[in-house]
Amino acid sequence: VAEVFLKKAGGIICIAGTGMGKMLAFWSPLTLMDTNIQIVVMPLNQLRHQSVSFLVQAGIKSISISAETVS
Question: Is the C-alpha dihedral spanning 2, 13, 7, 54 positive or negative?
């Protein structure tokens, strides 16, 4: 997934089970490119909050948009 993303070889659809490291494939390129925006849809609030926290700690600007944050 990360290789296709970095080579800009096309669109990506990634379907894998819980705990298979899917998010790392999307996050890794963000550390190498400073002008990209990436939208990731997550159905679980807890996972979304953990992801934002992890990305912020890694120095990647991140926000979570949900029913809780929309005003």
Answer: negative
pTM score over 0.90: no
Amino acid 36: pLDDT: 64
Predicted confidence (pLDDT) per residue in 4-59, tens digit: 777 777 777 777 777 777 777 667 777 776 666 667 777 777 788 888 888 888 77
Q: What is the 3-state secondary structure (H, E, C) of 1-67?
A: CHHHHHHCCCCCCCCCCCCCCHHHHHHHHHCCCCCCCCCCCCCCHHHHHHHHHHHHHCCCCCCCCCC
How many angstroms separate the CA atoms of 35 and 43, rounded? Answer: 26
Q: Alpha carbon of 7 to those of 14, 22, 32, 70: distances in Å?
A: 16, 18, 12, 35
> Phi and psi of 5, rounded to 5°?
-60, -50
